[in-house]
Structures are given as C-alpha cells and as structure tokens.
Design goal:
Blueprint: H1 3-14, H2 18-27, H3 36-47, H4 51-63
C-alpha cells in the first residue's frame, strides 16, 4: 500500500483529512519534532487506528508532507507517484497528483 493510500484509508475511517488531523494534533501539543510514540498512542486511542495507519499520520504531523524518494515512481505495492503527500482530502486530490 502506498503512503498516500494509508492517508486516504485513515480519512475514510475517521472522516478527517490529514490536514484536519494535523490541526487536531497541534491542539494536543504535537507537531514537528514530537516523538512518534505519544502521537501514535493518541491516534490509536482517539481514532481507533491501527499501527501502520497511525504511523503514516504521525509522519505528516511530525515531519510534514514530503516523503523520501525510495518508492516514488517505482514498481510494487508501496510506490507513490509523488514525493509530497496530498493532505487536503482524497476527494479534492487532482487526477494528475
């Protein structure tokens, strides 16, 4: 599953876009530089996310929307088409993203 697909699935489960989750995390005191464990715990307990999905959201909360190029444009199930993640909701993502 691509990184973007993880975020899309979180949106389906929670009804919240990644950007909305970032804002809610900031209200909890989480943001760039936060340790992953407390953010993951908060996401799991508050939104019922599994570990992988919570880690994907934690990445955008603590490190932003940019991802490493390891899987960008590659073959396989973990490939992403872009090195930046779309945070404003799966239904608003441009077709060429």
């Amino acid at each position: 599953m691509s990184f973007q697909a993880y975020l899309d699935n979180v949106e389906t489960k929670t009804g919240l876009t990644p950007r909305q989750l970032i804002a809610l995390a900031q209200e909890q005191g989480f943001g760039p530089g936060s340790k992953a464990t407390p953010v993951v715990t908060w996401l799991k307990e508050t939104y019922g996310l599994g570990h992988g999905h919570a880690m994907a959201v934690t990445h955008v909360i603590t490190k932003g929307a940019e991802i490493g190029s390891k899987h960008v444009g590659t073959e396989g199930s973990h490939r992403d088409s872009n090195d930046h993640l779309w945070l404003d909701g799966k239904d608003t993502r441009p077709a060429d993203w």
